[in-house]
Design goal:
The relative contact order is 0.13. This protein has helices at residues 24-37, 56-70, 85-98, 115-126, 139-142, 171-180, 194-200, 214-225, 229-243, 251-262, 278-293, 298-303, and strands at 7-10, 42-44, 76-80, 102-105, 133-137, 160-165, 185-188, 204-207. By secondary structure, the chain is an alpha/beta fold. It is built from 12 helices and 8 strands. It starts with 6 loop residues before the first strand and ends with a helix. It is globular. The protein has one domain (7-303): Aldolase class I (TIM Barrel). The longest helix has 16 residues, at 278-293.
Length: 304
């Protein structure tokens, strides 16, 4: 399926059973709920999908099962987050054989690459298959920064078509456009900067909180991209305390707890991550429950 590279693309969670084994049925049900809510594409096995907590064969199992469950309704991408370039290339090849529609490529994990090493890693994965690629730039989490200037060295890789910009610096959206024109499609990768990013010209949004609030994500995106800024700001102000959860170290636990609260999944994570306990859990629950108690009427917002 051809990737449209626009709209809301959830960084989907991977659901686990109480013993931390894969729960493919629950994962498929969750993807179905988001698709029915109107999201535009899916990204499996990203950071929120706990990619690095899964064994290699488990990742392929998830991709095969979810590709079948989605059934061509929306494009399906996978994160590529391996420790070595060779293994990342192998995983990209396996994803292509399974029939995935595209890749979201992260830097090699653990080792902190310099400029030359990072660029060579991305180039190698880009050449491993013909699948279109979204390059995921998140120096805050992974300590590898692909600056706007560095994309010049990747412009010749025709399979690199999009950038998930998660540097926490929205100035870079304009810098990338000024330097590279329309060569790369831009996605916002920071939930609580999405409205600002839409104003600056991104074509899509890779979101974490969409896992728990798919309807709100879709409506916010539609309001913003249609220029209905007053209504978009109203929804964004309600949503922002939740969106802040996407920027924390424990974003996976926070997002899964929100999913559990709204009945879209389990809060189970895989070790070394642990489910929340004590005061921290109560503080996050308070944010989620306040949002649910003050939830705006989406129909009225969309119609106003």
């Amino acid at each position: 399926m051809q990737v449209d590279w626009k709209g809301v693309y959830p960084a989907a969670t991977t659901q686990f059973k109480p013993d931390q084994s894969l729960d493919l049925d629950a994962t498929a049900r969750h993807l179905d709920a988001m698709i029915r809510a109107g999201i535009h594409g899916l990204i499996l096995l990203g950071s929120v999908g706990e990619n690095t907590a899964l064994e290699y064969d488990e990742k392929l199992t998830v991709l095969k099962a979810m590709k079948q469950a989605v059934g061509g309704r929306v494009p399906v991408l996978t994160g590529v987050a391996e420790n070595t370039t060779r293994l990342a290339c192998r995983f990209a090849e396996d994803a292509a054989r399974i029939g995935l529609d595209g890749l979201m490529v992260l830097p090699a994990m653990i080792y902190k690459a310099d400029r030359r090493e990072a660029l060579e890693h991305f180039k190698a994965v880009a050449r491993a298959t013909g699948l279109p690629i979204m390059l995921y730039n998140n120096p805050v989490s992974y300590s590898v920064d692909v600056t706007p200037e560095m994309f010049h060295e990747l412009a010749g890789e025709k399979t690199i078509v999009a950038i998930k910009e998660s540097s926490d610096n929205v100035r870079r959206i304009t810098d990338i456009i000024n330097l590279h024109g329309d060569r790369f499609l831009l996605f916002s990768g920071v939930d609580d900067l999405v409205l600002e990013s839409v104003l600056l010209g991104v074509q899509g949004w890779v979101s974490g909180l969409v896992n728990a609030f798919p309807d709100e994500n879709r409506v916010l995106w539609e309001l913003a991209t249609s220029g209905r800024w007053e209504q978009a700001r109203e929804l964004y102000r309600w949503y922002t305390p939740l969106l802040h959860l996407d920027t924390k170290v424990k974003l996976v636990q926070y997002i899964k707890l929100a999913m559990a609260e709204v009945g879209l999944g389990s809060e189970m994570v895989r070790a070394p991550k642990l489910t929340l306990v004590g005061q921290e859990r109560e503080e996050v629950l308070a944010i989620i429950r306040h949002a649910l108690a003050t939830q705006p009427q989406l129909g009225a917002l969309a119609a106003s």
